[in-house]
Model the fold of this input.
Amino acid sequence: MVEQYVNSGYSRAIMSLLRCWWTSLYLWVMMHAAGTLFVVNESWNEGFLWNLRKPDKLFFFDPLSVDTFGEVWTVVMIAAVLGGVYRTCGCRLVGSGTLGRIGRKPRLQNLWFCAPYIGAIGGCWIFSTFLLARHMFTRELSHTSMNLYAKLIFALLFKILVMANMTSVVLRAYVKVMELAMNWNRGHSSDLNFGERLRLILHN
Done:
């Protein structure tokens, strides 16, 4: 006989904390991906009469990984995003409860807490992508191999995918929050906690 599954009283709280951690890690990775710089290194062999140019190489560099202030500011902005989403949704932080104890009216004005993160990731992406595009379109064809151009194209595709992913997440989150507000106005309520709301808003 198959035993019936019994839901533990702490399972929703644990899953909520894990989803908060996963969301924070995702936002942290996306910030670093948007800020990654791709740099073409030019080097020369010095000779007695003339210098010989070596093949150019493409390197990537993450400025945030060596900037303590940048890392701290990134963590603060991620905390502001989570806090803004939590205050907007009006749900419980962890655990579960009855519909009578849950369902505070969504406060859409708290979405402004997400603005610093969105502005920072957009600024990092624009700056790093501009430098990458300058490397691509201002190089001399005689000094650039097809292998290097292929790497530059893949780097640009990586940047485009990062922005496409982040844009889709922001738009989906906005639509989900607006849907939550409309459901509240229709008299619908929910017993989802914060972690479950994050899954619905950001990861579905």
About this structure: The mean pLDDT is 78. Strands lie at 37-41, 44-46, 51-53, 57-61.
